[in-house]
Amino acid sequence: MSQTASGHFVRSPDKHSNTDKTGGMTIAPDASPTTILPYGPGNRWTFTYKETGFIQAQELALIYDASGSAPFTDEAHPAENTAEELWAAWAASVVDALHQEWPDRYRPGEVHINWGVTCPDEKTISEHAPHAHQHPGANPKYMTPAELDTHRYLYGHSAAGFHEDFLTHFTLPVHSVTGEPLNWLRLPVLDREWNPTTSNRGGFVQQATGWKPFPLQPTMDVRQVGAGAGLYVPPL
Known about the structure:
By secondary structure, this protein is of the alpha+beta class. It has helices at residues 71-74, 83-94, 97-101, 145-155, 160-163, 166-169, 204-209, 222-228; strands at 2-3, 9-10, 19-20, 25-26, 45-48, 55-58, 61-66, 110-118, 126-128, 174-175, 219-221. A hairpin with a 6-residue loop joins strand 5 and strand 6 (55-58).
Protein backbone atom coordinates (compact mmCIF):
# COMPACT_ATOMS: atom_id res chain seq x y z
CA MET A 1 0.00 0.00 0.00
CA SER A 2 1.07 3.57 -0.62
CA GLN A 3 -0.55 6.86 0.42
CA THR A 4 -1.36 9.67 -1.99
CA ALA A 5 -1.14 13.39 -1.25
CA SER A 6 -4.89 13.44 -0.58
CA GLY A 7 -4.50 10.80 2.11
CA HIS A 8 -6.04 7.93 0.15
CA PHE A 9 -4.38 4.54 0.10
CA VAL A 10 -3.75 2.75 -3.19
CA ARG A 11 -2.65 -0.83 -3.69
CA SER A 12 0.83 -1.25 -5.10
CA PRO A 13 1.25 -3.73 -7.98
CA ASP A 14 2.28 -7.18 -6.78
CA LYS A 15 5.86 -8.07 -7.55
CA HIS A 16 6.88 -11.49 -8.84
CA SER A 17 3.26 -12.39 -9.52
CA ASN A 18 2.48 -15.32 -11.83
CA THR A 19 -1.24 -14.63 -11.95
CA ASP A 20 -3.48 -12.56 -14.15
CA LYS A 21 -5.17 -10.18 -11.73
CA THR A 22 -7.71 -8.98 -14.27
CA GLY A 23 -9.13 -12.43 -14.77
CA GLY A 24 -8.27 -13.80 -11.35
CA MET A 25 -6.80 -16.92 -12.91
CA THR A 26 -3.53 -18.81 -12.78
CA ILE A 27 -2.21 -18.48 -16.31
CA ALA A 28 0.48 -21.17 -16.43
CA PRO A 29 -0.84 -24.54 -17.65
CA ASP A 30 -0.84 -27.10 -14.85
CA ALA A 31 0.57 -24.48 -12.49
CA SER A 32 0.65 -25.51 -8.87
CA PRO A 33 -2.79 -24.51 -7.52
CA THR A 34 -1.55 -23.12 -4.21
CA THR A 35 -2.96 -19.59 -4.39
CA ILE A 36 -6.33 -18.27 -3.27
CA LEU A 37 -7.39 -17.51 -6.84
CA PRO A 38 -9.63 -19.65 -9.06
CA TYR A 39 -7.93 -22.42 -11.00
CA GLY A 40 -7.03 -21.21 -14.45
CA PRO A 41 -7.10 -22.81 -17.90
CA GLY A 42 -4.77 -25.76 -18.33
CA ASN A 43 -5.09 -27.22 -14.84
CA ARG A 44 -5.92 -30.89 -15.27
CA TRP A 45 -7.31 -33.17 -12.58
CA THR A 46 -6.79 -36.93 -12.33
CA PHE A 47 -9.61 -39.12 -11.04
CA THR A 48 -10.79 -42.73 -11.28
CA TYR A 49 -14.16 -44.13 -12.30
CA LYS A 50 -14.99 -46.31 -9.30
CA GLU A 51 -16.91 -48.99 -11.17
CA THR A 52 -14.17 -49.92 -13.66
CA GLY A 53 -10.98 -48.36 -12.30
CA PHE A 54 -10.59 -46.27 -15.47
CA ILE A 55 -8.27 -43.31 -14.80
CA GLN A 56 -8.60 -40.04 -16.68
CA ALA A 57 -7.19 -36.53 -16.52
CA GLN A 58 -9.48 -33.63 -17.39
CA GLU A 59 -9.93 -29.95 -16.90
CA LEU A 60 -12.98 -29.44 -14.71
CA ALA A 61 -15.44 -26.61 -14.24
CA LEU A 62 -18.71 -25.87 -12.48
CA ILE A 63 -21.94 -25.21 -14.34
CA TYR A 64 -25.04 -23.67 -12.81
CA ASP A 65 -28.63 -22.81 -13.52
CA ALA A 66 -31.02 -20.70 -11.49
CA SER A 67 -34.09 -22.72 -10.61
CA GLY A 68 -36.66 -22.73 -13.39
CA SER A 69 -34.54 -20.75 -15.86
CA ALA A 70 -33.60 -23.57 -18.23
CA PRO A 71 -37.17 -24.40 -19.39
CA PHE A 72 -37.70 -20.76 -20.38
CA THR A 73 -35.16 -21.19 -23.18
CA ASP A 74 -36.32 -24.59 -24.47
CA GLU A 75 -38.85 -23.09 -26.88
CA ALA A 76 -37.12 -19.73 -27.30
CA HIS A 77 -34.57 -18.35 -29.75
CA PRO A 78 -32.26 -15.34 -29.26
CA ALA A 79 -33.45 -13.83 -32.55
CA GLU A 80 -37.02 -13.80 -31.28
CA ASN A 81 -36.72 -13.58 -27.51
CA THR A 82 -34.22 -11.21 -25.92
CA ALA A 83 -32.48 -11.97 -22.64
CA GLU A 84 -34.32 -9.07 -21.02
CA GLU A 85 -37.71 -10.38 -22.16
CA LEU A 86 -36.98 -13.85 -20.85
CA TRP A 87 -35.70 -12.39 -17.59
CA ALA A 88 -38.94 -10.46 -17.03
CA ALA A 89 -41.12 -13.51 -17.67
CA TRP A 90 -38.95 -15.81 -15.55
CA ALA A 91 -38.65 -13.35 -12.66
CA ALA A 92 -42.41 -12.88 -12.50
CA SER A 93 -42.86 -16.65 -12.47
CA VAL A 94 -40.32 -17.68 -9.82
CA VAL A 95 -39.57 -14.69 -7.62
CA ASP A 96 -41.53 -15.81 -4.54
CA ALA A 97 -42.51 -19.36 -5.47
CA LEU A 98 -39.98 -21.11 -3.23
CA HIS A 99 -40.64 -18.80 -0.30
CA GLN A 100 -44.35 -19.53 -0.52
CA GLU A 101 -43.74 -23.28 -0.61
CA TRP A 102 -40.85 -23.48 1.88
CA PRO A 103 -40.89 -20.23 3.90
CA ASP A 104 -38.47 -21.67 6.46
CA ARG A 105 -35.81 -22.27 3.80
CA TYR A 106 -36.14 -19.42 1.31
CA ARG A 107 -36.63 -15.70 1.83
CA PRO A 108 -38.88 -13.68 -0.51
CA GLY A 109 -37.15 -13.30 -3.86
CA GLU A 110 -34.77 -16.22 -3.44
CA VAL A 111 -34.48 -18.99 -6.02
CA HIS A 112 -32.43 -22.15 -5.77
CA ILE A 113 -29.20 -22.57 -7.78
CA ASN A 114 -28.48 -26.03 -9.19
CA TRP A 115 -24.83 -27.03 -9.65
CA GLY A 116 -23.05 -29.53 -11.85
CA VAL A 117 -19.49 -30.59 -12.63
CA THR A 118 -18.41 -30.66 -16.26
CA CYS A 119 -15.46 -29.93 -18.53
CA PRO A 120 -14.94 -26.57 -20.23
CA ASP A 121 -16.33 -28.03 -23.48
CA GLU A 122 -19.30 -29.54 -21.56
CA LYS A 123 -18.91 -32.82 -23.46
CA THR A 124 -17.11 -35.47 -21.44
CA ILE A 125 -18.25 -35.03 -17.83
CA SER A 126 -21.74 -34.23 -16.56
CA GLU A 127 -22.46 -34.90 -12.88
CA HIS A 128 -24.12 -33.15 -9.98
CA ALA A 129 -21.64 -31.13 -7.95
CA PRO A 130 -20.64 -32.42 -4.51
CA HIS A 131 -21.43 -30.29 -1.45
CA ALA A 132 -24.13 -28.29 -3.25
CA HIS A 133 -27.41 -27.69 -1.44
CA GLN A 134 -30.21 -29.82 -2.80
CA HIS A 135 -33.47 -28.37 -3.98
CA PRO A 136 -36.01 -29.35 -1.30
CA GLY A 137 -38.25 -30.85 -3.97
CA ALA A 138 -35.71 -33.67 -4.26
CA ASN A 139 -36.32 -34.66 -0.63
CA PRO A 140 -39.01 -37.38 -0.25
CA LYS A 141 -40.44 -35.76 2.88
CA TYR A 142 -41.55 -32.80 0.74
CA MET A 143 -43.17 -34.96 -1.96
CA THR A 144 -46.82 -35.60 -2.67
CA PRO A 145 -47.94 -39.25 -2.49
CA ALA A 146 -47.86 -39.50 -6.29
CA GLU A 147 -44.34 -38.04 -6.46
CA LEU A 148 -43.20 -40.39 -3.72
CA ASP A 149 -44.56 -43.39 -5.64
CA THR A 150 -42.61 -42.28 -8.72
CA HIS A 151 -39.49 -41.80 -6.60
CA ARG A 152 -39.78 -45.29 -5.13
CA TYR A 153 -40.35 -46.78 -8.59
CA LEU A 154 -37.18 -45.12 -9.92
CA TYR A 155 -34.92 -45.39 -6.88
CA GLY A 156 -36.44 -47.93 -4.50
CA HIS A 157 -37.16 -46.97 -0.89
CA SER A 158 -33.84 -45.17 -0.56
CA ALA A 159 -33.29 -41.51 -1.40
CA ALA A 160 -29.85 -42.41 -2.78
CA GLY A 161 -30.90 -41.63 -6.32
CA PHE A 162 -31.33 -37.99 -5.43
CA HIS A 163 -28.02 -37.69 -3.63
CA GLU A 164 -25.70 -39.03 -6.31
CA ASP A 165 -23.02 -36.61 -7.43
CA PHE A 166 -19.56 -36.62 -8.97
CA LEU A 167 -18.03 -38.36 -5.94
CA THR A 168 -20.62 -41.16 -6.13
CA HIS A 169 -19.01 -42.35 -9.36
CA PHE A 170 -15.46 -40.93 -9.27
CA THR A 171 -12.67 -40.55 -6.75
CA LEU A 172 -11.73 -37.12 -5.45
CA PRO A 173 -9.70 -35.45 -8.23
CA VAL A 174 -6.08 -34.58 -7.57
CA HIS A 175 -3.94 -32.16 -9.55
CA SER A 176 -2.26 -34.03 -12.38
CA VAL A 177 1.15 -32.48 -11.65
CA THR A 178 1.24 -31.72 -7.94
CA GLY A 179 -1.15 -34.33 -6.57
CA GLU A 180 -2.95 -31.63 -4.59
CA PRO A 181 -6.61 -32.50 -3.84
CA LEU A 182 -9.22 -30.47 -5.68
CA ASN A 183 -10.83 -27.54 -3.88
CA TRP A 184 -14.35 -27.42 -5.36
CA LEU A 185 -14.74 -23.76 -4.42
CA ARG A 186 -11.88 -22.75 -6.70
CA LEU A 187 -13.16 -24.38 -9.88
CA PRO A 188 -14.12 -21.85 -12.57
CA VAL A 189 -17.84 -21.23 -13.07
CA LEU A 190 -18.73 -21.41 -16.76
CA ASP A 191 -20.46 -18.41 -18.30
CA ARG A 192 -24.02 -18.87 -19.56
CA GLU A 193 -25.01 -16.76 -22.55
CA TRP A 194 -28.08 -15.87 -24.57
CA ASN A 195 -27.17 -14.01 -27.77
CA PRO A 196 -27.05 -14.57 -31.56
CA THR A 197 -23.92 -16.74 -31.33
CA THR A 198 -24.47 -18.69 -28.09
CA SER A 199 -27.75 -19.84 -26.56
CA ASN A 200 -27.13 -21.76 -23.34
CA ARG A 201 -30.11 -23.12 -21.45
CA GLY A 202 -31.03 -20.49 -18.89
CA GLY A 203 -28.32 -18.22 -20.28
CA PHE A 204 -30.59 -15.19 -20.30
CA VAL A 205 -30.02 -14.68 -16.56
CA GLN A 206 -26.32 -13.90 -16.91
CA GLN A 207 -26.74 -12.26 -20.31
CA ALA A 208 -29.33 -9.80 -19.02
CA THR A 209 -27.75 -9.06 -15.65
CA GLY A 210 -24.01 -9.53 -16.09
CA TRP A 211 -24.12 -11.61 -12.89
CA LYS A 212 -23.18 -15.17 -12.11
CA PRO A 213 -22.91 -16.95 -8.76
CA PHE A 214 -19.77 -17.87 -6.87
CA PRO A 215 -19.02 -21.62 -6.71
CA LEU A 216 -21.75 -23.66 -4.99
CA GLN A 217 -23.72 -20.54 -4.00
CA PRO A 218 -27.05 -22.01 -2.85
CA THR A 219 -29.48 -19.24 -3.84
CA MET A 220 -29.82 -15.99 -5.74
CA ASP A 221 -32.02 -13.04 -4.80
CA VAL A 222 -33.95 -12.23 -7.96
CA ARG A 223 -35.00 -8.78 -6.78
CA GLN A 224 -31.50 -7.77 -5.70
CA VAL A 225 -29.78 -8.99 -8.87
CA GLY A 226 -32.45 -7.55 -11.16
CA ALA A 227 -32.47 -4.18 -9.42
CA GLY A 228 -28.68 -4.00 -9.53
CA ALA A 229 -28.78 -4.57 -13.28
CA GLY A 230 -31.59 -2.07 -13.86
CA LEU A 231 -34.05 -4.76 -14.96
CA TYR A 232 -37.68 -5.43 -14.19
CA VAL A 233 -38.26 -6.92 -10.75
CA PRO A 234 -41.68 -7.95 -9.43
CA PRO A 235 -42.84 -5.83 -6.49
CA LEU A 236 -42.92 -7.32 -3.01
